[in-house]
Every structure is written in C-alpha cells, then in structure tokens.
Amino acid sequence: MANEVEQVNSLQSICYTRGSLKLLDQRKLPLETIYLDIADSKDGWVAIKDMVVRGAPAIAIAAALSLAVEVSNLGAFSGMPKDAASFLSDKLDYLVSSRPTAVNLSDAATKLKEVVHKAAAASSEAQNVFQAYVEAAEVMLEDDVASNKAIGHYGASFLQKQQSDPKNISVLTHCNTGSLATAGYGTALGVIRALHEKGVLERAYCTETRPFNQGSRLTAFELVHENIPATLIADSAAAALMKAGQVKAVIVGADRVAANGDTANKIGTYSLAISAMHHGIPFYVAAPLTSIDLSLSSGEEIVIEERSAKELLHARGGLGEQVAASGISVWNPAFDVTPATVISGIITEKGVITKDGADSFDIKSFAEKVSSNH
Ligand code: MRU
C-alpha cells in the first residue's frame, strides 16, 4: 500500500479500473479522505484485517478485486490452466483468512473458485483462466450496487406498509451499512436512503457503535453528506430513545445470517434487538443473499471474530491515545448474534423474508423460490 492519494468528499470506498484498485482508508474518516493503492492480494488482506475497508459486502469485493489487480499485472505465467486455477484458489483461501465472521467473503471466494476451475477445464491457456477470474470479480462489483438498490426499494415499501404513520418514519440504525460498507448505496442505510428519497423519513438515528465508532465516524458522515435528517446517539442511549417513542423501526445490516434467520452483526446489535422487543418496535435485518449462510442451521455455529484489546484501551477504536487503565483485561468480540425470535423481517434484494407466525425464518425455502423464478 505504497501511495496515498488525497481526494475530496467522496463516499466511494472502492475505486477500481482494470489493473488498479484504490481503497478509501476508512480509519481516517471523517477528517481525511485518503485512498490507498492496493497492488495485490497481500495488500488486500492487510487492508481488510486493519479495517482500511470494512463492512461485509465491501470486504468481499475488495478482496476479489485485490487479486484481480494482482493477476492483471502478473506478466508472464509459465504454468498450465490448472496451475493458474490453483494459484488463484490458494490466494482466495488466504484472503478469506483476513476476517472470519462476514460470510460474503467466503461466499465470493467459493463462487470465484468455481469460475476458475471451470475456465481451467475449458481452456488450454492459463491466461484465459486469469481473464475469467478478473471478469467475474468485476461483475461482483457491479452487481452489489444493483442489489443494494433493490434492498432499499423492498425495505422502504415494506416498512411503510407496517407503520401506522407511513409518511413519518424515524429509524434507528447501528454500525455502518452504507456506501462505505458496500460497493455503493448500502443495505440498512440503503433502506434509510430509500425512505428519504420517498420523502417519508422523519429522522435517522445512528449509534456511535463502540469501540470502533463506525456509526459516529462513518454513518454520521454519510448521513450528513446526503443531507438526511439525522441524530447521533451514544450506544447506551438507545433504550431511552425507544422509551421516549422516537424510534418507529430499527434496521441493521448483517455479517452472516444462518438458515433459521439468527444474525451475526456488529457488537451491540443484540442489545438493540432486545430493547426494540421490550418497546414493541419492529427490528429488521437488511442484507443481500450473499450474507446468508444456509450451511449453518443456527447462529450458534457462527464464528465470532475477537479483535485487539487496543480497540478498547485506546480512543478512536485503538487509533488514538490510551483511555483505559493499563493492566485491565479486555473482551472485545466484534460481532454478536441476534436470535431470529426477535427479528421481525429480513430485507433482501429479492424481497422481505418474514416468519409468518413461526419462531424462526425458513430462508432455504425463500432462496429456492426466488431462484426458481429466474
Ligand atoms: O467490523 P465491521 O465494521 O466490518 O462490521 C460491519 C457490520 O457489522 C455491518 O453491519 C455489516 O457488515 C453489514 S455492512 C452492509
């Protein structure tokens, strides 16, 4: 990640043209807009691990494109097509090891491996395998924005139908699920954007999202940038805000949704869901189908990433001065799992999944239904 390029006022986290990838350094926001050059999968791995880029869809796309840039600039490759496929497969496994919880990353890697193995079987040139990889990674970038816009559309319409006052909806969100966490538009923040575009959003409330402050640094930045009426609250103010009657719905993103709808998302999501249930407020998860992991029957099987103690011991999620006593022990899970029982609906790019009176979601049937419609 050699060069730093300053740009002004951009919400684009991933800037890609064939052979070149720049990632917005989200650790520097909102005060500085610095893009880092990503030359290869090693740079991609470090950028994901160190939170230059974060958010489940953005991580997956940035990883895929970091390898696309590496192979676009590879020069001569002496191996056979199957060697090219193994080369790509190994690099994808390496990229998946950067962060464990968001399934989008391993889902993208699995799909890209299928592409390269098929290309290797069908071709006599290693170069064709690389070409197939680069094209498939580029499609992932394009597809994500369209998918987020569809989530926004379905989510806003659904929410309006559920509300007693569908023209004045105030929503609370957590973490950052917007343009910065995706290729563009966002998931939960995409629904908020769509409500605002329809003129029915009264106010968006965003939590600080400690310890890394994705809410105060990133979501607040996006909301201000888009002129969306918005208020920042401390994470610990959420229950009081709900009690005061200021929240009509909670919408969050997801890093991994199990087949029954149990959802891993940013730490603190579970507390918000419990508070929402206590106050009779609907709680929605907005996520693309790539965030769903049908191989897991429940959230108990989701691996939760634990991050460095420094994120709590130092200000600004570990990037600033020390604020906690030296010697204190720290537990810092990056995510928690919200049980399906307290989730009202899962908003996807193919429609909203509901429980229809059951305790959990039947996401497998939903996925089968939408894929048979194609
Ligand atoms: O640790 P982060 O910042 O990558 O966590 C991000 C979240 O938890 C988001 O809510 C989730 O990835 C959905 S982003 C559309």
Automatic annotation (TrEMBL):
Subcellular location(s) per record: Cytoplasm; Nucleus
Main location: cytoplasm
Catalytic activity of the protein: 5-(methylsulfanyl)-alpha-D-ribose 1-phosphate = 5-(methylsulfanyl)-D-ribulose 1-phosphate
Keywords: Amino-acid biosynthesis, Cytoplasm, Isomerase, Methionine biosynthesis, Nucleus
Pathway: Amino-acid biosynthesis; L-methionine biosynthesis via salvage pathway; L-methionine from S-methyl-5-thio-alpha-D-ribose 1-phosphate: step 1/6
Active site residues according to the UniProt entry: D255 (proton donor)
InterPro entries: IF-2B-related, IF-M1Pi, IF_2B-like_C, Initiation_fac_2B_a/b/d, M1Pi_N, NagB/RpiA_transferase-like
EC number of this enzyme: 5.3.1.23
Record-level Gene Ontology MF annotations: S-methyl-5-thioribose-1-phosphate isomerase activity
Primary enzyme class: isomerase
Gene3D superfamilies noted in UniProt: translation initiation factor eif-2b, domain 1, Translation initiation factor eif-2b, domain 2
GO biological process, one term: L-methionine salvage from methylthioadenosine
Site residues (Transition state stabilizer), renumbered to this chain: C175
Transmembrane segments: none
Cellular-component GO terms for this entry: cytoplasm; nucleus
HAMAP family: Salvage_MtnA
Recorded family membership: Belongs to the eIF-2B alpha/beta/delta subunits family. MtnA subfamily.
Function: Catalyzes the interconversion of methylthioribose-1-phosphate (MTR-1-P) into methylthioribulose-1-phosphate (MTRu-1-P).
NCBIfam families the record matches: eIF-2B_rel (TIGR00524), PRK05720.1 (NF004326), salvage_mtnA (TIGR00512)
Name the UniProt record assigns to this protein: Methylthioribose-1-phosphate isomerase
